[in-house]
Request: fold
Amino acid sequence: MTPEEQARAARDLLEAEASGRQIGLLSLRHPGMGLNDAYAVQTAILQAKRAAGRRVIGWKIGLTSKAMQSALGIDIPDSGILFDDMLFEDGGTVPPGRFIQPRIEAEIAFVMKAPLAGDAVTRADVLAATDYVAPSLEILDTRIQRVDPASGTPRNVLDTISDNAANAGLVLGAARHAPEACDLRWVGAITLRDGAVEETGLGAGVLNDPVESVVWLARRMAQYGQSIAPGQIILSGSFIRPVECPPGSRIHADFGAFGEVRIAFA
Reply:
């Protein structure tokens, strides 16, 4: 993609978010696009949102499970950006019309107390830089059609990355834990919609250890001259499949002794 094509794709995605009308697959519009193009589109969105007054509050990691990587034909995770207007109160309600096709995922969130940077970041570095871990929900949305209606072609990882890794919101639970206090591989959640169990999973589904997910993010960001700052929130990746959230949905993720988190959709 040329810089002009990347800029246009970013503008189209921002307009889709504002209007609630999805655009077609960028991977069909630009069949030669690659990972660097997708992240360039994401960066253009970052620049536009910052210019509009938005503030970066963290980062999300996606495609951390083998099942999701296999479904999209990729063997590495992806990442996206969390902005200040994406943070919802635990137990709150998402207003009507805020999202196009919202879904949720249960995740372990890391909140940082020290910077984390460089392509040699280790597991020990992540633990030392983390203030606390908490139960969380990620709200997904898609400003790009999931399937092209004419050809039946599904969106791929390049579409998803361009679309800020499908990120739209996050909810942090009230519980706080030292990152070394428990084996995060065994932290799990029962995720309910309207009182019925939809999904269950364990932290080990995230690259075998959610800490390793943050290691991956720090190293990937180093390739693009970026770093994780103190106070930022890192969503380490989902260990459940996405749960659809049509209007009226009530979501409760019960992490047992680790805590709980809730959100409703008007």
